[in-house]
Design goal:
- This protein has helices at residues 4-29, 35-45, 64-90, 97-106, 109-118, 131-155.
- It contains 6 helices and no strands.
- The protein has one domain (4-155).
- With 159 residues, it is an all-alpha fold.
Length: 159
C-alpha cells in the first residue's frame, strides 16, 4: 500500500522531471507556461472570475507566481493519487510504465479544457497566438509527467 508520503514523493519527482523538461523546452522553443498567470487565475476564481483576461493588469495579485507554483504541485499530488487509486483499486494492477505514461497523456485534458479556457486562451488553446505549439507543448509536457510518475515509483521501489 502506498502512503500519502509516497504520493508526495512521486508527485514531487514527477514535477521535477516535468519542470526540467519544460525548462529545456522553453530554452529551445520559447515560453510554454506562465505560472504567475496560473496563480492569478486561481486567485481570481475566488474573486468570482473564472475566465481571466490576461491583458488586464488590474487583476494581478500579490504572490501570484508562488500561488501558481503551489497550485502546480497540488495538482500533481492529486493526479498521482488518482493514478494510484486507478491502477490499484480500479484496474487491480500494480503501477507500470505504460499506465503511468498513458495517465500522463490523459491529464492533458485538464489544461486543454479547463486551464487554457480559464486563462482566456479558449478550449484547446484555440485563441492562443500559436495554438498548435501550445497544444503540442502541453501534450509533450503531460507525457513527460507520466514518465516522471513512473520514475517516482522507481525511486520508491514500487515499480
Amino acid at each position: 500500500m502506498i502512503s500519502l508520503s509516497d504520493i508526495l514523493i512521486i508527485a514531487v519527482s514527477a514535477n521535477i522531471v516535468t519542470d526540467l523538461y519544460e525548462f529545456a523546452l522553453e530554452r529551445l522553443l520559447g515560453k510554454t507556461r506562465d505560472w504567475h498567470l496560473v496563480g492569478r487565475w486561481v486567485a481570481n476564481i475566488f474573486r468570482g472570475s473564472v475566465i481571466l483576461d490576461t491583458n488586464d493588469d488590474a487583476l494581478a495579485v500579490p504572490g501570484e507566481l508562488i500561488l501558481g507554483w503551489v497550485f502546480h504541485y497540488i495538482v500533481a499530488f492529486l493526479y498521482v493519487a488518482m493514478y494510484l487509486v486507478g491502477t490499484q483499486f480500479i484496474l487491480g494492477e500494480p503501477p507500470a510504465m505504460d499506465t503511468a505514461i498513458g495517465f500522463g497523456i490523459i491529464t492533458v485534458a485538464a489544461p486543454w479544457l479547463i486551464l487554457m479556457p480559464g486563462l482566456g486562451l479558449g478550449v484547446f488553446a484555440a485563441k492562443a497566438a500559436k495554438p498548435n505549439f501550445v497544444r503540442a507543448a502541453s501534450l509533450s509536457v503531460h507525457t513527460v509527467f507520466g514518465i516522471g510518475i513512473y520514475l517516482g515509483l522507481v525511486i520508491l521501489g514500487q515499480a
